[in-house]
Structure formats: C-alpha cells, structure tokens
Known about the structure:
Layout: E1 9-11, H1 20-27, E2 34-36, E3 40-41, H2 42-47, E4 62-67, H3 71-84, E5 88-93, H4 98-102, H5 113-126, E6 131-139, H6 145-159, E7 163-171, H7 178-181, H8 189-198, E8 203-207, H9 213-218, E9 225-228, H10 230-234, H11 242-247, H12 259-271, H13 273-281, H14 286-290, H15 303-313, H16 321-333
Parallel strand pairs: 1-2, 1-9, 2-4, 3-4, 4-5, 5-6, 6-7, 7-8, 8-9
Binding site for FMN: 13-15, 65, 134, 167, 207-209, 229-230
Keywords: Flavoprotein, FMN, NADP, Oxidoreductase, RNA-binding, tRNA processing, tRNA-binding
GO molecular function: tRNA-dihydrouridine20 synthase activity
Amino acid sequence: MSSFFSHRFSVAPMLDWTTRHCRVFHRSLTKNAMLYTEMITTGAIIHGKYDHLLFNQIESPIALQLGGANPTELAFCAKKAESYGYNEINLNVGCPSDRVQNGKFGACLMAEADLVAECIDAMSNAVNIPVTVKTRIGIDELDSYEFLVNFIETIKKKSGCTHFIIHARKAWLNGLSPKQNREIPPLDYDRVFKLKHDFPELTIILNGGLKDINLAHSLLQHVDGVMLGREAYQNPMILLGVDKLFFDEQPLAFDISSDKMVEKAILAVESLYPYIENELSKGNKLSHITRHMVGLFTGIKGSKQWRRDLSELAHRPSADNRILENALLHIKNAR
C-alpha cells in the first residue's frame, strides 16, 4: 500500500459543497491540505448518467469519499477511482441523513462493525491506495467509549485499517436533521484524544466544530491531524494560513484582514481565470464555480459588493471572468 499524503490538515467532505469546482478553488488557497470529495454513492458511480469521478489533477492530493455498504460494489468503485488518480478512498460511516439510512449506509453502519470491516477489506484488496474510515463517536444509545473502541478494534482486526477520521459527536439516527446532528450532540474531543492515547499505532484525525486554525494546530499534540468543514467553506480565507502553520511549522499570527492576506486571496482568484475560461468553453456556468467563492472576503472592506456581484450577476448566461474582475475591484479599491 502506498504511503499516505500528510493528513495534518484536511477539508471535510460536504454534500453539495465540496464539488470539483470548490476543490479547485480551495487548492488555489492551500497546496498541501488534503481535500475530500462530497460523498458519492456506489449507485451513482455504477448507474449514474454521467461520470461522478471526474476531477482535475490540480486538486490533488484528493480523496474520494464513498457511500455504500455492499463490499463488491465498493471494491469496484474504489478500483475505478484509483484508475482516475485519486490518492485515497474514504468510507462514509458518519452521515445520519434519512436518505443515507434508507440506503443502509452512513452512520447507521456503526452498529455493524463486521460489515464495515468487510467493506474496508474488500476495497483494500482491490486497490493500492489507502482506504480510510470517517465515523462518529457513537450513534443513539451506543455512545460509550467502550462501544467506540470495539468498533475501531473490529475494523482494524478484520480489515487492517488503521486510519480513522472521527467526528467528535455522536449521531442521533431519528429525530434530528443532518444540520441538527452537526450542532446538538455535544462535542467530545477528549474521547478522541483518549482513543489516540490508548491506540498510538492508529492514525486519528479529529473532525467537528473546529473553526480557528491556530487552536486546531494546538490539538496536534493529541491527534495526528485535524479536519475542518463548514468554517473552511464559509470563511475560505483561513485556508491561506494552512501551509505555513501545518506544513512549514512556522508560527502564524493570522490576521485575516491584513493587506498580505487580502493580496494573497486576490491572487488566488486571479489564478483561477484560465480554469474558469476552460470550464465556460465546455458550457459550464460561472455561477457553478463562483458560488463556492462568495465567502472569501468575509470581514474585509468591499466584501458586501463582492458578494452582491457574485450572487446577482454570475448566473447570467453571458457571465464570464469579467464578473470576477469587476467584483475584485471592490476589494482592491477599498484597501
């Protein structure tokens, strides 16, 4: 099995958010962070009307997150993804949505550790890239530390998997929406820290509720890596600090409104012009790309006008890079 890319910092898989356009944008802000696709089901890959696995090589390092519970289908999709150039396959054992539960995968699989192990084993035998698990700390009443340990140990023993991304909340499979499941069950970082302490041979990545990258970096004394989700998406400028802090190990006094950071963000947007032109030439819409960029300048002078331009103008049939150029002028002129 090939060696892992560094997982010291990664951006979480987020349904409808971490699309290929989003990942190209995020890659313009950080060269080293591990990026994850939104969850893609085995059914979509096998029976979909278009190719869900396509991505741009500039997104690498990139992991495919799969949703499914059939070992044969998962192995087929993992092998196909490896042929496309993905660097990792990740199995979703954390999503609590009704749709996912109806498909018998996601967080409900925490109650079926043997099946998860069978799925991981099948994928690992089919590919030469790492296969990992993203899970919660528990589900419903199955939320003790002992339950989590048994779940992890079963998977490790029966599949050989030693890499786990753990959202430090349990999931309620009934009564809470996915949004509520991200907010209502309390965070329990200490349980994840204890897991790493008790099983130092495991690679443990902490996910859930992380917003400040300096604080997130400080948690590396307890775990092997951290994964940010919604904060990285809604306030993507924080990604500009990731490479220095997490990969160069240089202290970061991160002032999001500093001229240096704003200039970096402007250059990142401008670096995307060739990619956008190419996508538009294929018939794709500007708004499909820029919707992921709306929050880039949050808190910066001119950001209101930036958001307005992208929200109101990017969907027009004739929209092209001139929309971005003009929107950037609001930021440049306000400096």
